[in-house]
Amino acid sequence: MNLPSHTAENGNVSVDTGHTRLNELGYKQELKRDLSMLSNFAFSFSIISVLTGITTLYNTGLNFGGSVSLVYGWLIAGAFTMFVGLSMAEICSSYPTSGGLYYWSAKLAGPNWAPFASWITGWFNIVGQWAVTTSIDFSLAQMIQVIILLSTGGKNGGGYEASKYVVIGLHGGILLLHALINSLPISVLSFFGQLAAAWNLVGVMVLMILIPTVTTERASAKFVFTHFNTDNGDGIGNKAYIFVLGLLMSQYTLTGYDASAHMTEETKNADKNGPKGIISSIGISIIFGWGYLLGITLAVTNIPYLLSEDNDAGGYAIAEIFYLAFKNRYGSGVGGIVCLGVVAVAIFFCGMSSVASNSRMAYAFSRDGAMPFSSLWHKVNKQEVPINAVWFSAFISFCMALTYLGSEVAFQAMVSIATIGLYIAYAFPIFFRVTLARKSFIPGPFNLGSYGILVGWISVLWVATISVLFSLPVAYPITSETLNYTPVAVCGLLVLTVSSWILSARHWFKGPITNINS
Length: 518
Description:
two-stranded antiparallel sheet, AA_permease
């Protein structure tokens, strides 16, 4: 197959290929195109942020399966995530726009299905993104609370335990900082993005070597690679079931790499560099994440104690691991608290990049008239930043976190949309690519050739599988407190999206609207 040329020459001056392709797709350049391939990669890598996902959800992996589900679950989830990333990268190369997934769905579903396909993909994508930002910044608020607890003597030494109102206040303050940073010009944001990627890389390398070196009691290699923890206290004894639940940590962490697609209108030669950003961020995260998991798990010797709410960190396993490693060797846990600070900065950068990605999606979706008050959200300021979309995204994420004040169960349901909702949005365009657009899809500079269909089907089937697995009960007997509300939240979003389409949007939403002549 002859590939379309995505390189443009204007006299002797080379025109940016991403800019040219954007014009071909019917959009004018409104955002400042200033990001390099490295900067584009940095945004996705910072959102995946292995320090964030693994640290905050290590308890889940430890409880369900222990080191086996942590070490091998990561590799399984990583391999299938790479399939999803490759499929998305191929589509991104052909359609490098800030709309990303919902624009791809519209183009790949064909003219008859385009409006509905882009509507449902777009809403799953943006709500999933808001949920991701909510959970990232909430996990930072909880991390700060644990740092304060350990710094004031720990749970067993009369340390300060923040109320849920203080945690929500911290969450609001963090979101405010993220909105302020994302209001700065893209050149400044690009610097922060690269700093975030560097911090994540160096932080992982330091912690995966430092913690097992400092700890006085190390786990054996046999424990790290073969110990299967069935003592979860949740009434689940089936090993396969336990392993699947432990997989959640890995799959939650390996998400958010659609940021590379949402930043394409600000990336140089985006039809080549956008796909590179997606694939490299996943690949490097898998390698460094596995190293981090091995390093931390080498310091695990007593799983029930680490998960106990009676330990100094109040049951926050990795915090207790860091704290004990230094306390047992040096008589003080200050070094462990500093290590938690390194993770906290990584989580902060993760949230910053997430708000950047959210705002670009909101900007593009409202540019096509899909959101209430669309004209307001797609305005850009003099620095070519979608400023209103930035603050709107931060505000929505704060509102989603307020559910925590009413019910932790409701909050968990809200956050569950982050993984499943987002992955369903990833799967829609890939599904249309391998079905309706199987013969009509015109690839860009990056493509999978004859393997595109096979890789696409593997991706779609994996998303379908995890959507079912992560909807399974996580504790027995099932009560209102132990029920897994993920399917309720996802089905609720589906019902809202489809009913709003049937009742209203089908009459006025026509899918992506070109603006090059406006």
